[in-house]
Amino acid sequence: MALTFREATLHDVRDVVRISNDAFMADAFFKKPEFIIRFNEDTVRNMISNPAENGVFLVASDDGGSSIVGSIHVEPVRRLDSDQGGVSRITGGFSAVSVPESHGKRGIGSFLVASAEEYVLSVARQQFADIPTAEVCMQMGVVNVREDLFSGSECARRPVSLVRETGV
Predict the structure, then answer these.
(1) N or C: which terminus of the chain has fewer CB atoms within 10 Å of its end residue's CB?
(2) Contact, 111 vs 60, CB < 8 A?
């Protein structure tokens, strides 16, 4: 299966909601009942409509782009100035890596994370071309501050920060 990715559009709202909610049902037993549904259409529509503030959803499509088989939320790319030798840090984050159970174990989740990294590097090169040297980091959303989980269920989870490239 050859996969491609692109930014989600308003035409993809129902697919993103369906895929995300399907993928996150696997951990529903950890969640308080009011949080079992991960996203609704209004939330995703608002997020897609304001990418500068909310980031973007990327969607993965199978051969020929005929159907969406996964999605990932990519947070806005930000520049954090550093006082350590003038090197700036550019961060991008991802969350809600979503692949329906019917498409699991095919590498789609790994493809989505790699696509998010590629997307963040591309945006960083465009937005921060004036920075001679920068550290670009990808961060995964921290699970242990999620209000939707019962207390104690997140104790084994840790935040992840990956430095992928120096020099934008």
Answers:
(1) N
(2) yes
